[in-house]
C-alpha cells in the first residue's frame, strides 16, 4: 500500500479521498489546500489524515510516498516538477497542463526522477471504453470514419464568480477543460493523434463572464474526422460515438454535476450503450456500475509500487495538451489550427 497526500480539498479533492476508502492499494495520510476552513478540518479528521500548512511541507512529510493533485490547472506543471524533485509519485487531475511546453517540461522532470506519473483520465478505465477499444482494434467496426462526443452540465448557472473554475485563464472555452478533455483523450486513445482543429466558442446563458457553448471540428492524423461539443448551461449528459464502415457504437452517461452525491459522480458516468451494425438488429445494453475514480487511483498506486504501468501513456497526455492548445487558438483566430 502506498501512502498519499491530497493537494486541493475542494469538492473533487474530497471525492477522490472518498473513492478509495478501505482500499488495500492506497491510503491518504496527509493533505493541504489553499483555504483552510473548519469544514476542511472536519473532513480531514473524519477521513483520518492530517493537514499540513503548505505543499512544500507535504512534500517533505516523511510518511508520504505520492501526491494527488486536485488543484487549479495552471499550478499543475510546477507542482508536478516539485513532487518529482522530492522523489514523490504523482497522480495529477486533468487537464494535465495548459500548454504543450509545460507538459513536456513536467514529463521530462518525472522521467529524470524515475517516479510514476498518472493523469486523471479515468473514463479510459471503464469496461465499455475497453470494449470499444477492442472492437476498433479487432476490426469489428470496420474502417473508422468519424468519432464524436457531446458533454453537458448546468454548473455555469450556479458557480461562484470568484471561484477559480470561473476564471477564463484557468478554463478557456467553457466546458473544454472540465469536461471536453476527457473526450479529446478518448479520441486520441482510439484514433491516434489529432492533426488539426476548427473551433467556435461563445456565451449564451451563463451569468458569469465565461463561454458556455463550444463546438469543435477535428481531423486525426490517421484520416478520420471528429466532433466535440460542450455546453455548461443545460442539463447533464455525455455521449461518445464511433462510426465505422461495419456499424457504429454509442456510449451514453452523465457528467459531474455540482451538488450531486459523491457516489453519483464516481459511478454513474456510463449508462446506455448501443451497437448498430450495417446489417442486422441493434444491440442495446446498460453499462456496468464502476467507481472509475477508485479504479484509476488504485491503478496508479500499483504502478507506483512497481506493478503494471498506468494505461494512459505520457506521450498521449502531451498529445492531448497540444490538441487543446490548437483548439483554443482556433477559437481565437477563427481559422483551422494545426496541432503543434
Describe this structure in words.
The chain is of the alpha/beta class and 340 residues long. The chain has two domains: 2-122, Rossmann fold, CATH 3.40.50.720; 125-294 and 321-338, Dihydrodipicolinate Reductase, domain 2 (2-Layer Sandwich), CATH 3.30.360. It has helices at residues 11-19, 38-47, 55-59, 76-85, 100-113, 127-137, 176-191, 262-267, 292-304, 314-333; strands at residues 2-7, 26-32, 50-51, 66-69, 89-92, 117-119, 144-152, 194-202, 213-220, 225-231, 237-244, 247-253, 272-277, 283-286, 337-338. The strands form two sheets. The protein has a nine-stranded mixed beta sheet. Strands 3-2-1-4-5-6 form a six-stranded parallel beta sheet, with helices on both faces. A hairpin with a 5-residue loop joins strand 13 and strand 14 (283-286). The radius of gyration is 20 Å and the shape is globular. The protein has ten helices and 15 strands. It is 34% helix and 25% strand.
Q: Quick summary of this structure?
A:
The protein is an alpha/beta fold and 340 residues long.
Which descriptors would you attach to this protein?
340 residues; alpha/beta; Rossmann fold; Dihydrodipicolinate Reductase, domain 2; 10 helices
Secondary structure: helix percent: 25-40%
Strand content: 25-35%
Look at the structure and give the CATH class of the largest domain: Alpha Beta
The total count of helices amounts to 10
Would you identify the CATH architecture of the largest domain? 2-Layer Sandwich
Amino acid at each position: 500500500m502506498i501512502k498519499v497526500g491530497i493537494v486541493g480539498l475542494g469538492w473533487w479533492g474530497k471525492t477522490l479521498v472518498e473513492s478509495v476508502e478501505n482500499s488495500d492499494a492506497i491510503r491518504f495520510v496527509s493533505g493541504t489546500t489553499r483555504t483552510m476552513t473548519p469544514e476542511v478540518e472536519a473532513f480531514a479528521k473524519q477521513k483520518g489524515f492530517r493537514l499540513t500548512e503548505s505543499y512544500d511541507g507535504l512534500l517533505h512529510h516523511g510518511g508520504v510516498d505520492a501526491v494527488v493533485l486536485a488543484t487549479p490547472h495552471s499550478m499543475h506543471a510546477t507542482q508536478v516538477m516539485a513532487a518529482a524533485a522530492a522523489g514523490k509519485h504523482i497522480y495529477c487531475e486533468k487537464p494535465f497542463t495548459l500548454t504543450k511546453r509545460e507538459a513536456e517540461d513536467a514529463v521530462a522532470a518525472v522521467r529524470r526522477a524515475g517516479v510514476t506519473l498518472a493523469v486523471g483520465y479515468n473514463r479510459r478505465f471503464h469496461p465499455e471504453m475497453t470494449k470499444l477499444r477492442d472492437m476498433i482494434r479487432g476490426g469489428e467496426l470496420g474502417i473508422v470514419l468519424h468519432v464524436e462526443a457531446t458533454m453537458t452540465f448546468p454548473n455555469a448557472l450556479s458557480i461562484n464568480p470568484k471561484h477559480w473554475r470561473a476564471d477564463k485563464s484557468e478554463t478557456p472555452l467553457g466546458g473544454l477543460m472540465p469536461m471536453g478533455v476527457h473526450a479529446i483523450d478518448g479520441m486520441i486513445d482510439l484514433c491516434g493523434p489529432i492533426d488539426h482543429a476548427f473551433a467556435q466558442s461563445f456565451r449564451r446563458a451563463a451569468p458569469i463572464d465565461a463561454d458556455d457553448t463550444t463546438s469543435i471540428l477535428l481531423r486525426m492524423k490517421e484520416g478520420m474526422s471528429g466532433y466535440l461539443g460542450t455546453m455548461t448551461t443545460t442539463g447533464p449528459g455525455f455521449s461518445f460515438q464511433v462510426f465505422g464502415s461495419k456499424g457504429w457504437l454509442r456510449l451514453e452517461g452523465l457528467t459531474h454535476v455540482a451538488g450531486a452525491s459523491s457516489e453519483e459522480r464516481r459511478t454513474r458516468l456510463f449508462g446506455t450503450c448501443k451497437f448498430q451494425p450495417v446489417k442486422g438488429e441493434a444491440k442495446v445494453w446498460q453499462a456496468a456500475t464502476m467507481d472509475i475514480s477508485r479504479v484509476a487511483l488504485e491503478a496508479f498506486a500499483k504502478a507506483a509500487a512497481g506493478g503494471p504501468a498506468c494505461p494512459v501513456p505520457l506521450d498521449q497526455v502531451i498529445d492531448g495538451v497540444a490538441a487543446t492548445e490548437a483548439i483554443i487558438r482556433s477559437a481565437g483566430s477563427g481559422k483551422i489550427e494545426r496541432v503543434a
